[in-house]
Amino acid sequence: MRVKLSNRITTALLAAAVFALPLVAQTRISIPKNKYSTRDDIQLGQKAANDVERQFPLIIDSDAQAYLSRIGERLVEAIPPEFQHSEFNYRFKWVNASDLNAFALPGGPMYVNRGMIENAHNEGELAGVMAHELSHVALRHATAQATKNSGAGNTLRTLGLILGGAVVGGQSGAELGAMAAQGFMLKYSREYESQADMLGAQIMARAGYDPMDLANVFQTIQQQGGKAGPQWLSSHPDPGNRYQAISREAQYLRVQNPIKMTRDFERIQARFRAMPRARSMSQIESGAPSGGNNGGDNGGYNPTANGRYSDTVATPSTRYRTYREGNVLSISIPDNWREFGGSADVQFAPEGAYGSEGITRGVMLGVSAGSGDLTRDTQTYLGQIVQGNTYLGRSSGATRTTINGHQGYQTVLSGRSPITGRTEIVTIYTTETRSGQLLYITTVVPENESYYYSNTFRNIVNSIQLND
Ligand SMILES: [Zn+2]
Asked: What distance in angstroms lies between residue 402's CA and the mean position of ligand 1's atoms?
């Protein structure tokens, strides 16, 4: 059976060689007033990053990931010393979305859409939008903006809601549901935009790129247009004569043989262009079906697709390893099962039990935005499962259970699996996190093998530790 998935990239960041050039007469940038600590930036960014990765499909591709990280690290090293924050955790991930968009969260997490490299003219342009985003982070514009806006009653919690937007969860999160992707993208003031352009240009030059590619990428984004105009430009308004201002700054930033087109850029661009068409961010938000041709609903990406089904599958190991989802939860998984996907939804299955149609034995685990009503959210989730696996029918009504002390439901579905040709038993456990999100654990096994899996499944469900 299969399920809606989003993915996480686990590849470690690679260090990059960096060369900085001495510079003269650039615009001086003054760090805006900020009443928050850098720790606040980090915490807010981390929380928002969890939500982003829950909501948007990331691309798992170690080569593409390493490439993006190389550019990102090169730029980070080139941040002028007075704006560096060694405590920040800069990291870079590809989102499987078609829009020319990129966004960075306080404290370092950055997301670059696949559409960005598919449409950029060279590596310089890709680095340009990243350098601009990086500048917002280094100058701590999100918390600076909150400092400016804050009245007496303003707290970090409300700031968290601004940043987390739609997917913070809980009551307030639900109310903000309509904010969609923009929730992660603060609309910056023109003053901050101008700062990010100037610092971005300086970082570009120090990293060995042509600062004019920062100006060029704005034109590339603009040309994409679209009905509502590119989202990136609505959250990064033109401070006025953006192109001219960057051009002026670039005159002071001399770079010998700047990095323009690279082989890595061409390779990754070609690979992404050859992938099934990605959805736009707003299509992903609204749950529109994928434009891809593999039947997946994950922006065309199916993490188990490379597996081969087999009739003989090793029984679950009695040794377990612990899988952790940030600080939110931990769970024990047999150590001979592989892990697929990530963040919001993750699947675990033994060799021979996964492939293009999902898994035939194993466990799926995930969190989705909830309404705060467990019964209703459970029904919604069950509906999605049956929709994606039409051979499954209800074997039992939802029975009450507890999961790590939380109230929950257990529901059994069954039907003849088109993969194994045998009756498949799918058991779905649902509960709600304190912030009102739906947590689901789904076990899958052919009925005639269920005897060999029952202890394992019980151990897994009993091992769940929910910290939210
Ligand atoms: Zn901006």
From this structure: 46
